[in-house]
Write a structure and sequence with these properties.
Helix content of chain B: 25-40%
Strand order of the largest sheet of chain A: 3-2-1-4-16
Shape of chain A: globular
Radius of gyration of chain B: 18 Å
Order of helices and strands of chain B: EEHEEEHEEEHEHEEHEHEEEHEHH
Shape of chain B: globular
Strand content of chain A: 15-25%
Mean pLDDT of chain A: 92
Structural class of chain B: alpha/beta
Structural class of chain A: alpha/beta
Oligomer: heterodimer
Largest interface: A-B, 47 and 48 residues
Number of strands of chain A: 16
Strand order of the largest sheet of chain B: 6-1-2-5-4-3-7
Number of strands of chain B: 16
Largest sheet of chain B: 7 strands, antiparallel
Low-confidence stretches of chain A: 1-5
Chain lengths: 469, 287
């Protein structure tokens, strides 16, 4: 009987996460949401229908057993829920924060048909945070040593996932990281207020406890080539990330104070320039900031600028609100904090002063025409609609390309027209024997969870290869 | 198991220290065996002195592959270099990343003139040596403001066939600028195939203006502000031949006749205010 009642429309509404007040948080770098309390998590978990054929699992790129972990939360076994998550996802505290759940698990949630979907991401975050806070992090048993050695290039989400999978299968795993810290985009790209860095550090510590070795400061392609690594390792995984900033190629783009989003966020996040002068890396603290682009990276840049003391931050985007690639939640947070949106607006040139510092830019108004190859309506300039806006700092956040440093030093590695590595979508195998690849360097800029999914597939394929070698 | 990040706990130990040019220039030998084995003339490293440090590019003045050390020669210009100068033999630098950038393209051309100004001489030294070893007739010109600021004279003498020295104040060598001596040589001999000029931006700018008149190909090595130095951030963008290049991966050497030096100077000065804040704070600590 109870079971039958549960199948009816849930009476409990989707639970919100308590969060910092927008006015307050726009001035600090602390994380925006506080996360669920145990009570809120259990309340939210009661909304799950425990479907016999759960759609949510299919919606998850790493196929987490979502109903099972939610059930454990409902029963109050929060540690059990975290372990259930970790059976499929080695980085749940991160995914609970940065996955686009609204396009994945939550999009297909049955509850969402009539009501708002179960807040799967928030529950995932809760369970993972609970486990970490309790210090009761489960270290699974490793398979007996195989004697096989795997080199992982890059310590972003793809590389970390793959390293975690392969170390458990008994292989020796060494990660080569170009920077002085691990985490890739999780460390240099995503700001503290969205993903606290101690969470990333905790995930890396977990891998190190499992026995993964990390070699910092190693730019593969320079200090070692892939061919040199192949002499010592049985398999190599390339999880480099996209890592090439795109500029708009308009006049004046090299004025001081105009950053690529990569530079702006790397200065603030990796180098902790937001703590200058405690940390030595400087960053421009613009009062009137323009951010070009409307993806998650643009929102992160805009919100960082606010926290660094800007009075005005404008998102300038050439399409309309509907086409903005950022997650709805990120746009919402940015708006709440006071970021302004200049939509259907495209910059045409920058202006600067005698010191070469940016002072403003000229824009054109756009209208939407026929759909382009991306399926989105193409922005078309409106003749004679030029106007000017002032700014003392700007961030170009219009996407990334493939960094050619490693591919161009690796003969036998096939690249596509845009310079990304060609890899089998099911296995991650590249055209070079013994070499796999996954994440943004294969797909172009995508999401953390897709990179993790690619890491998992490649790990399975590498394991199979090593055991038959 | 080999350790690519050098020296075990990713620490890069200083094994030799010498102060030069009235203590404005510092010369370290640092343990970094793998970088020492891999580095080629013209390449550079990025270092981070400590946990709160910034990442700065420094060119290697040389390497000792068998001894496993690299030579770092730097002028004390800001907080990071001032902090580095306080380190002594036995101390370590937190992070050194390299070798970075494209190596100098060295081939046998005939007569090559290598011009180094100020600390640029340190960058010039391994390149000069490489051109000589490749069988070129190498004329070297080095200059400084005054005699006491001159560095690596003996080394440059050994690395070239003919070394000319200038000082701005006439306290040593030829009284004048490196460009004065260069003009004289270019007037005298018509067989110069290549000029390499490395030094302060104004020096490179005027040197290239001169060599353009004579129509001699000139390469320069640029040193803009960098962050990651792997092509990821674009902090080091320079305009060369009207196109934006990333100095860290496309350079550091470029055709000197194509570089927009005025833009480079402005971009190098982007953080003057912050640099002063950092330096004042550092001095206040009594270092």
């Amino acid at each position: 009987m109870a079971e039958k009642e549960k199948k009816e429309k849930p009476k409990v509404p989707r639970q919100k996460m308590p969060e910092q007040d927008p006015k307050e948080r726009a001035k600090n770098f602390n994380e925006v949401p506080f996360g669920y309390t145990p009570e809120l998590a259990q309340l939210e978990s009661s909304r799950c229908l425990q479907c016999k054929k759960p759609k949510c699992i299919e919606g998850c790129p790493v196929e987490i057993d979502i109903p099972a972990f939610i059930k454990l939360i409902n029963e109050g076994d929060f540690i059990g829920a975290a372990r259930k998550l970790k059976e499929r996802n080695s980085l749940p505290a991160i995914c609970g924060r940065v996955c686009p759940q609204e396009d994945q698990c939550e999009k297909v949630c049955i509850v969402g048909k009539k009501d708002e979907p179960v807040a799967i991401g928030r529950l995932e975050r809760f369970a993972a945070d609970w486990e970490r806070a309790k210090g009761d992090v489960f270290i699974p048993e490793k398979a007996p040593t195989t004697g096989k050695k795997v080199a992982v290039v890059g310590s972003g989400p793809a590389g970390l996932t793959l390293a975690g999978d392969l170390i458990l299968k008994g292989h020796e795993v060494t990660i080569f990281e170009a920077l002085h810290k691990t985490g890739g985009v999780l460390i240099y790209g995503i700001p503290e207020f969205r993903l606290p860095k101690d969470i990333v550090q905790a995930e890396v510590n977990y891998l190190e406890r499992l026995g993964v070795t990390v070699e910092y400061n190693c730019v593969i392609g320079r200090i070692e080539t892939v061919d040199e690594l192949l002499q010592e390792y049985d398999a190599i995984f390339l999880g480099l990330g996209a890592g090439l900033p795109q500029f708009m190629n308009i006049p004046g783009e090299n004025f001081c104070g105009i950053y690529s989003a990569n530079e702006y966020l790397t200065r603030s996040n990796l180098m902790k320039a937001y703590l200058f002068p405690k940390y030595d890396t400087p960053i421009a603290r613009g009062k009137n900031v323009a951010v070009f682009g409307a993806g998650n990276v643009a929102m992160d840049s805009a919100r960082t600028a606010l926290r660094l003391g800007a009075d005005t931050v404008r998102i300038v985007y050439r399409r309309s609100r509907e086409e903005m690639p950022a997650r709805i939640e990120e746009v919402h947070h940015a708006e709440e904090e006071g970021v302004q949106f200049y939509l259907l607006t495209a910059p045409t040139r920058f202006f600067g002063d005698d010191n070469g510092w940016v002072t403003g830019f000229e824009c054109l108004k756009m209208e939407l025409g026929e759909p382009d190859e991306s399926g989105r309506r193409r922005p078309v300039p409106i003749k004679g609609s030029e106007f000017q806006l002032e700014c003392d700092m700007a961030v170009v956040a219009i996407g990334a390309g493939a960094n050619p440093l490693l591919p161009t030093t690796t003969p036998g590695l096939e690249l596509n027209k845009r310079g990304y590595i060609v890899a089998d979508p099911e296995t991650g195998k590249t055209t070079k024997p013994g070499v796999w690849a996954g994440g943004d360097i294969v797909t172009g800029s995508a999401t953390v969870i897709l990179a993790m999914g690619a890491g998992r597939k490649a790990a399975n394929s590498i394991h199979e290869y090593l055991m038959n070698k | 198991m080999k350790n690519l990040s050098e020296g075990g706990g990713r620490l890069y130990k200083i094994t030799y220290k010498r102060e030069m040019a009235e203590n404005t220039v510092c010369y370290f030998k640092v343990e970094a065996p793998r970088i020492a084995r891999k580095a080629k003339p013209g390449q550079f490293v990025v270092l981070r002195a400590n946990e709160t440090g910034e990442r700065i590019p420094l060119t290697m003045g040389g390497t000792d592959p068998s001894g496993g050390t690299i030579d770092l020669i730097f002028q004390v210009v800001g907080k990071t270099t001032a902090l580095l100068r306080t380190l002594n033999v036995g101390d370590s630098i937190e992070d050194i990343i390299g070798p970075l950038g494209r190596p100098t393209h060295v081939e046998k051309l005939g007569t090559v003139i290598c011009v180094g100004g100020g600390t640029g001489v340190a960058v010039m030294y391994p390149i000069t040596k490489a051109y000589k070893e490749a069988g070129n007739n190498v004329i070297a010109i080095i200059g400084a403001r005054t005699k006491d600021l001159l560095i690596l004279e003996d080394e440059m003498k050994a690395a070239s066939h003919d070394l000319r020295v200038t000082t701005d104040d006439g306290s040593y060598g030829v009284h004048g600028f490196v460009t004065d001596v260069l003009r004289k040589i270019l007037d005298e001999r018509k067989d110069v195939k290549l000029i390499v000029g490395i030094g302060p931006v104004p020096m490179m700018k005027f040197l290239c203006k001169l060599t353009k008149e004579y129509g001699v190909k000139t390469m320069v090595s640029l040193n803009p502000i960098m962050v990651d130095a792997t092509g990821m951030c674009g902090a080091c963008r320079v305009t060369v031949g009207g196109r934006t290049k990333f100095c860290c991966v496309d350079g550091p050497e470029f055709d000197g006749h194509e570089v927009d030096y005025d833009e480079l100077v402005k971009r190098q000065r982007a953080y003057l205010t912050e640099e002063k804040v950092s330096m004042d704070q550092f001095k206040a600590l009594g270092r």
